[in-house]
Amino acid sequence: MIEFTLNGKKTVYNGPPTARLLTVLRDEYGLTGVKCGCMEGECGACSVIMDGLLINSCMAAMGRVAQTEIVTIEGYSETKRFDVLQRAFAETGAVQCGFCTPGMVLAAECILSEDPDPSEEEIRTGISGNLCRCTGYNAIVNAVGVAAKEGRGLWQDKNIRRR
């Protein structure tokens, strides 16, 4: 029995501790915003936030998530911060096919919660573990910068708060 918090709700997983978090999130909990890309921790499509840190869920065994807090894009979409990032991504043309977008948005959350006013270099470093084959990175970097300006004050509080 593995207990953890998933998108703000206490959760119990009773399957094998060696199962991949990615697979469990998608198959057991129906959280399909977590994408299966490379299964090697290289693309970031499976990104989730675990205890405030961006991780590749394809590389995390369920045993690793015991007593942690996991936030997926579905849980994050219930926050004011998501609203700001979603608007910024749309306004700057940082979304095309959408496959990388959930991971990029969660990476942006981690960047902004670490530094609410990041430099372009800090943004590029923060998203560097996430691949985008459509949009390119300039629009995504611009989106994070726009969100930082429009959401001033939202990221001062280190905790992700629901609406």
What does this structure look like?
The chain has 163 residues and is α+β, with helices and mostly antiparallel strands. 36% of the residues lie in helices and 13% in strands. The protein has a 5-stranded mixed beta sheet with strand order 2-1-5-3-4. Strand 3 and strand 4 form a beta hairpin. Helix 3 packs across helix 6. The model has no long low-confidence stretch (mean pLDDT 92).
Distance separating the two termini: 31 Å
Are there runs of 5+ residues with pLDDT below 50, and where? none
Report the helical percentage: 25-40%
The structural class is alpha+beta
Strand and helix order:
EEHEEEHHHHH
In the sheet with the most strands, the strands line up as: 2-1-5-3-4
Q: How big is the Rg? A: 15 Å
Mean pLDDT comes to 92
Helix/strand layout:
Elements: E1 2-6, E2 9-13, H1 21-27, E3 47-50, E4 53-56, E5 69-71, H2 73-76, H3 80-91, H4 101-114, H5 120-126, H6 137-150
Parallel strand pairs: 1-5
Antiparallel strand pairs: 1-2, 3-4, 3-5
Helix pairs in contact: 3-6
Please provide a brief summary of the model.
The chain has 6 helices and 5 strands, in the order ββαβββααααα. With 163 residues, it is an alpha+beta fold.
Defining key terms:
163 residues, alpha+beta, five-stranded mixed β-sheet, globular
